[in-house]
Each structure stands twice: as structure tokens, then as C-alpha cells.
Amino acid sequence: MAMTEQTAAPQKNGRVNLRTPAVMEAVQAQVQSHYRSEVVEKLRAAGGTLSKAGVTVKLAKQFGFCYGVERAIDLAYAAAKVFTDRRLFILGEIIHNPEVNEQIRVLGIKNLIGKNAEARVDDLTAADVVIVPAFGTDVTTLERIKEIGSNIVDTTCGDVMSVWKRVRQNAQDDMTSIIHGKASHEETKATASRAMVSGKGHYLVVLTLDDTDYVCDFIRRGGDKEAFLERFRGAYSEGFDPDIHLRRVGVANQTTMMRGETEEVQRRIMAAIRERDGGDGKANYRFFDTICGATQERQDALRVMLDEPMDLLIVAGGYNSSNTSHLAEMGEQKLPTYFIRNASRLESRDRITHYDLHAKREITTTNWLPHRPVTIGITAGASCPNNLIEDAILRLFELHGIGRGELLE
């Protein structure tokens, strides 16, 4: 089918809607050819367990691409099909997976953000098309693109936009948003910018429970303001003053955090507000459940699988993927866990190269794969496509001398 710009529906504020039946039908075959997996489909149909000659691989019930990621990828592919005579750009990575991002680059879509940027936002023209990734982008960048007049293909996840709604409301009500997340993460930056849209809002980003306890102590008793600001340097809004802006707070979160940890952040801050103010604290505190449903489903599914007998766990996905990292954290608490970017890291029966969450770099481990009989668990975060999961499964069997043909008999 020949695609034209007329197949895309124009919307306000420079946005274009590519999710029309004609466009989506045209991109489905291309997307599936890149990311679907016969082996994963077979494994899922078999209840998530595949055994051969003493080797058993268990796949978590929920894993891999979520709806929001699929939608973002579909829209990027659609943009490349529809706007064949336009320059195409994206604001950073479409998702946190290097293989998928390479596929986006191959489509001719150039990066505008980060160390791999191939152009700048100010280089755009009104004839260009800009893709906003699944994480969203900050208000300043988006307004500049609208000012230039470029067409915008917005793939921002709906769960992320739900958080934005909450922090905007906090700002309107003179409440500081305390955001549980990573201050350097694209989603958290985008969320933080929404906390200031009204011109009077503020935000503070906390990553750990230690950060949270530090904030709670300040809420209860006050303290050294300069020390506070130094500890959270780069993680609060311009003009933030803990003596003033911790009086009324609302807790939000990066959608891919661990639910249990976010709930503990909420609980501790609520307790500090109540202790300081007395009563139920509702006048000066609020929170909403804004953990991504897909993130929670993958964590819940892994939690169930970790209660089953297994010798080790493989977690597949991009090393900068927050939701994938949390799956690796969960695994580490129960059994030997190896966080791999792709199957190439399964080098041999004796060597595996994997990401160390504590050292924040790849390391090599030897003598990692037990002899048969062996049971191996595998899962993947919401940004990992099925074809990469398949590659890892096939490699695990291959290391025991079992080929693809035998598995698909």
C-alpha cells in the first residue's frame, strides 16, 4: 500500500495521529517481522515451560513488550512509512532497548537528544517531523518544537501522562511534588517539568528510602537547609526551599519503580506530615497510585516464578531500563541472577557477561551454568522484544547441545 500524509489525521498543537486503520495495517507486518518470536509463542502456549533432554526453561507469565511500548514502536514505524519526503527526528531513545533503538535509526529517524544526538532542536524546521518517545519529554522542549511548527508524533505512554496530571494538580494547589524516581531518567525529567507549568509549583526527587528518611526528618524537625540542598543537588526545582516547600506535599512516582518501595515512600512521608501537623495530615499531604500496570504485572509474575524451584534466572533487556533493572533486583534476592542485554552475552557454558547493578557496569562470571538436569527462569522488562527473548532461550538450549529444530518438533 502506498502511504501518503493524507492517511494521517491532523490534530491540534502540531500533533498528527498516525493510528488510523490504513497506516497501522501497513506497519504491522514490518513490526512483526522484526520482533515476533515463534519460540516464545510456543513456550507461552505450553504454559510457560519448555523442557528437552534435562534442560527446562521457565518463562514468566508476564514479560516483554507492554501496550505502551508496542504503541510507541508502531507509531515510529508509521511515521517512517507516511512521511517519506520529510526529515524525521526523535527526542532521545524510543524505549530503553539498544536493539530497538538501532532499528529506529535504520528507519532514517535521527536523534535530537543526548550523547548520540545527530542534530539539535533549534535545527528543526516547520517541515520536519518529531517523535516524542514513550517516556514523554519536558515542557520546555515540547513548547520550542511547537513554536518552530514541526509536526509532532506523540508516543508518550498513557500511564506517564496520568502522573503528569497529578503533579500539575499539585502545583495548582500549592503543593510540592515529591517524585519517587531517578532524577536523570527521561520520564522523571518530563514529569518534574509538569510540576512547574503553573509557574508556582516545585518538585523534589527521591530515589531511595534513605533519601526519603532524610526528607522525613527535615519535615519533622527542620534542619540544615544548605546540607539538604547539597544532598539533593540536581533533584529539585529552581528556587526550591525545604523550609517552605515541604509544608504541603504530594507524592508521585516514575511509573517503572517498585510498587512496594513507592508505597513505603508514601507511608513514611505521610507519617512525617501527621507527626508534624497532628490529625490525619490530609490538608498537607496527598498521593495517588501511579505505578504502571504493566510494570506491576511483570513484577508480580516474577514473584510467583521465584517461588518455584529454579537453578538460576536470566533477565533480558536494556541496562538503562528501570523496570528491567527492578526485575533483576528481585531475582538477586532469591537465586543466581544474570541481567543480559542479549543472547550474545551467553558466551559459553563457562562464561557469561552480564550487568552488575551495584558496580553499574558489565562483568564476566565463570562457571555460571549448571550441568543437566537444570531449570532456568527467564523474564524481560517491558522494553524487551520477543525476538531477543527467543535468542536467549535458544542459546540456553544450544549451550547444552540442543538445537532450534529439536525445540520446535
Description:
The radius of gyration is 23 Å and the shape is globular. 41% of the residues lie in helices and 18% in strands. With 409 residues, it is of the alpha/beta class. It has three domains: 8-32 and 67-156, Rossmann fold (3-Layer(aba) Sandwich); 46-64 and 294-407, 4-hydroxy-3-methylbut-2-enyl diphosphate reductase, catalytic domain (Cobalt-precorrin-4 Transmethylase, domain 1, 3-Layer(aba) Sandwich); 159-291, 3-Layer(aba) Sandwich (Cobalt-precorrin-4 Transmethylase, domain 1), CATH 3.40.1010.
> What structural class do the secondary elements suggest?
alpha/beta
How far do the termini sit from each other? 36 Å
**Largest sheet geometry:** 5 strands, mixed
- Number of distinct helices: 15
CATH architecture of the largest domain: 3-Layer(aba) Sandwich
State the shape: globular
Rg of Cα set: 23 Å
**What share of the residues lie within helices?**
40-55%
The overall strand count is 17
Major β-sheet strand ordering:
3-4-17-13-14
Tally of domains: 3
Low-confidence stretches are none
**How large a portion of the residues is in β-strands, by DSSP E?**
15-25%
